[in-house]
Amino acid sequence: MTQPPILIIGGGIVGLTLAQSLQKSHIPYLLFERDTSSSHPHHGWGLTIHWALQSFESCLPSQIFARLQGIQVDPQQALNDTGRFLFLDLATAEPKYVIPPSKRLRIHRRKLRELLTEGISINWNKNLRAITQSDGSIVAHFEDGSTAKGALLIGADGSSSQTRRLLFAGSLDPDASKLNQLPVSFMGVTVRLSPSQAQILRDIDPLLFQGSHPETGVYLWYSTLSTPEGNGSAGKGSDEFYEGQLMMSWLVKTAYDGVPSTSGERVAKMKEMSHGFEERLRNAIANIPDDSEVLEIKLKDWPPPKWDNMSGQLTLVGDAAHAMTMYRGEAFNHGIMDAAQFSKRIAEAYKGAGEYDRDALREAVDTYEEEMRGRTHSAVLLNRQACLDAHDIKRLGPDSPLISRRVRVTKPGQSAG
């Protein structure tokens, strides 16, 4: 009997990692993505892989994992990376804390998604409309009228997950799927920097730093996104450039504290809020071109509750399962851990060329969900507190989740400690 596939909804990084891991274990899958292609305007920022690095390796073919080194934002710096993470007093640019270092890769998000698509079959332009069960199978219904049957449907479709909404739609509390809005405004921009402009910021830290202002509470994040060697401009004289990310956030206390509606207004607000910054930091904001595209990010989270997994045929991974803020840099790492833990358990239910063990698959889903909730429910809340702490440097102490050591994982398949 042909083994029924695993249906994955969402072709982002976690969905692709899960697909790579299932394919590595010769488990049939179908991957559906609502985007029309792999190019997406919001996939150009960076992310850090740290405590989940070993688990990421367990999910990927060795030749793909080896290529992660080449898509780091600065492969040369990575050779001697200290792993340190500075939190600055933005009024002086002096470190308030040095967050404990860890082995890490700082990866260009768009390049990572492109790498993870290699060898993976993706069904593009598929918007999930409904989920039903029929003859022992789970059925995904898409807006274009097509359907797909499988043994299990996994929602990997991000923090605004349609799968999550459908999962809770028939429950006693359909609003339980809604994200929690945090009282914080956040916006960011990718900037092109001359080598001299980039060096000023890289002298503070070559890869990334963060901090807040003691009087205004405004938070700033900077990270290198590409070097001339990585973006192809090396050796081109005055055309040589770096790319960086500049992000700012602040507590919402009045109507004036919202994010402006246009990019031009957002640039102006970033410059206004940086007036009290140390000169190098203030100049970095002042040099943002007025016509830059500035993106707003809605800061929301969702600690995962228990849900009806339809007898082990429907579940969630990644941001769909545990949306959290980025202030501890953990969201992606937890998503990778989901993929590593879950795919291992799914593999145990698919036994060679014979029929899969339905009871074992149901047990795999239940076991995964219990482990995932235990690992991520507290992580969501710690990231929420870190977000709030980031805007009050005067009260920021060494025990804050913003500063304390991140989650550690000893081996793939074991829970975080």
From TrEMBL:
Keyword tags: FAD, Flavoprotein, Monooxygenase, Oxidoreductase, Signal
Cofactor requirement: FAD
Annotated GO MF terms: FAD binding; monooxygenase activity
The keyword Signal is annotated on this UniProt entry: yes
Gene3D superfamilies to which the protein is assigned, alphabetical: FAD/NAD(P)-binding domain (3.50.50.60)
Xref: InterPro entries: FAD-bd (IPR002938), FAD/NAD-bd_sf (IPR036188)
Domain FAD-binding: 5-167, 310-376
Signal peptide span: 1-19
Statement: the UniProt record of this protein carries the keyword Nucleotidyltransferase: no
PANTHER family (alphabetical): FAD-BINDING DOMAIN-CONTAINING PROTEIN-RELATED, MONOOXYGENASE, FAD-BINDING
Entry protein name: FAD-binding domain-containing protein
UniProt source species: Melanomma pulvis-pyrius CBS 109.77
